[in-house]
Design brief:
single chain; mainly alpha; Glycosyltransferase; globular
Amino acid sequence: MPYHPFSRLPEPLAFIRHFTPNWFAMTMGTGVLALVVAQLPWRLPVLRGLSEGLWGFGVLLFAVFSLLFLARLLLFRDTVKPMLLHPVQSMFLGAIPMGLAVLIKGLLLFGVPRWGESVHALALALWWLDAALALLAALVVPYLMFTRQSHALEKLTAVWLLPIVAPEVAASTAAALVPQLAPEAARQLLVVGFVLWGMSLALAFALITLVLLRLALHKLPGTDFAATSWLPLGPLATGCLGLLGMGQVAPLAFAGTPLLGAAELARDLGLLGGLALWGAGLWWLLTATLFTRHYLRDDMPFNLGWWGFTFPLGVFTLATFELQALTGMAAFGLIGLLLAAQLAAVWLLVLLRTLAGIWHGELFRAPCLMPANSTALRG
């Protein structure tokens, strides 16, 4: 008989039971688009309103998804273990802190003008929560991979990056908080940020190496995993953005201390390292574009994994705008505008496909609660 996940429960409870962390990728894509629109060179009220509206939409999504996810954990505890042991769904636990991180950055950008300086304390508290969640995902999920989950090289995809990239995303957000803090708190936050950045990027490079090996030996994964081709761009772009941001605020945080010289060196090396990471990201951007053209010929099916097209592209766009601001080179600004237009088009397409999937009820199936031969990325 065909599998019907809603057959034994009232529909609202069935929806909660099958709610997956995959949905938080939607908050990541929406939040990063808000930040990109805010970085556009035209200071128009309509763009400011659009970016703030997108951020508010992202906040609403995160709040709703958090309530649904907590309800699943509390009401259906029997689903927790299958979720943690699922080799794909568990990876999306990293999307929770990453979605929160971009919303915190938006809170600093949009919340301070609207609600005043008190927003800084809220943003700082949320950042420490985000850092803790990111560290938890980066430790627990790999531990389960090494001890309980079943994996094979031919099944490896870049979705493995999601839990370990979360600390890096938190680190890039720390740079926006540092100028708003007292010197001692700023230094503490920046040190933690660099530690999270180093932890995440080092592991990301190791995994990207494995992804390249898997692609060479076993070629592209199936069409259900098409969006994972873009995921390696995420840590490269976030690494660039974090290094640039933390390097720029380091002299401010360590002014008047014996570490001022090191902080100034971090600023200068941050620009050089950022350029290098941007170059690596550019290679992956072009390669992922070719992969996507290949997948389009195979009529790839829609799933929540398509939100993976948005966040890496968005962070790379932010890094490009930041390089334009620091170097003054117009080429970065032009590339940033092209990337922003691409991001807006992709986000709108994926949003419309998501709404259609919600309307038809196609996205409300937790992979860990479905038969083993079902599509792994379907949320």
